[in-house]
TrEMBL record:
Stated family: Belongs to the BexD/CtrA/VexA family.
Source organism (scientific name): Williamwhitmania taraxaci
Molecular function GO terms recorded: polysaccharide transmembrane transporter activity; porin activity
Membrane association type: Multi-pass membrane protein
Protein name: Polysaccharide export outer membrane protein
TM spans (from-to): 150-169
Taxonomic path: Bacteria, Pseudomonadati, Bacteroidota, Bacteroidia, Bacteroidales
Length: 170
């Protein structure tokens, strides 16, 4: 048995020495496998093509403990596994307001998700695709808490100034 791997270039081609190049961009794994198999059958007898996605990247941003891009070395990963790679949601992460950005042939698709809804498990977006980006929004309470700290400091400062002024005026 002979196994070899090929990289898809930026233009969507794989380069096989005796075939030159073969366009696989936009094809599913099964479609690409069938196309490669058909092409190889023209050159060899009894070949078998096994096609697997070796790795791809997903990005997780927003209210997570370790935001960033992650290389996935499995054939698939789901939303919750990707969040786990990013260290999980922070205390102020809003699981009801998650945005998935997916690259398509027609551009970027922006998909709002609610991770607290059980139906997410049956969603077309449960499993991630190469180059997907997940953004976890902060809870509104976080901005209120951040704002209330500023308000408390401002009122405290104003009270202190008024107290000093009243003492000086006596």
């Amino acid at each position: 048995m002979f196994l070899n791997s090929f990289t898809v270039d930026e233009e969507g081609y794989i380069h096989i020495s005796f075939i030159n190049k073969l366009l696989v961009e936009g094809l599913t794994l099964e479609e690409a496998k069938n196309q490669i198999q058909k092409t190889l059958n023209e050159y060899f007898k009894e070949t078998t093509v096994v096609l697997k996605l070796v790795n791809f990247k997903v990005t997780v941003l927003g209210e997570v403990n370790s935001p960033g891009s992650f290389t996935i070395d499995k054939e698939q990963i789901n939303l919750f596994q990707a969040l786990g790679l990013a260290g999980g949601m922070k205390n102020f992460g809003n699981g009801k307001k998650v945005t998935l950005v997916r690259q398509t042939d027609s551009g970027s698709e922006v998909i709002p998700l609610d991770l607290t809804d059980r139906n997410i498990l049956a969603s077309d977006y449960y499993y991630l695709m190469p180059n997907d980006m997940i953004y976890i929004e902060p809870l509104k309470a976080k901005s209120n808490i951040d704002g209330s700290n500023f308000t408390a400091i401002a009122f405290s400062s104003a009270t202190t100034i008024l107290l000093i002024v009243s003492i000086l005026l006596r």
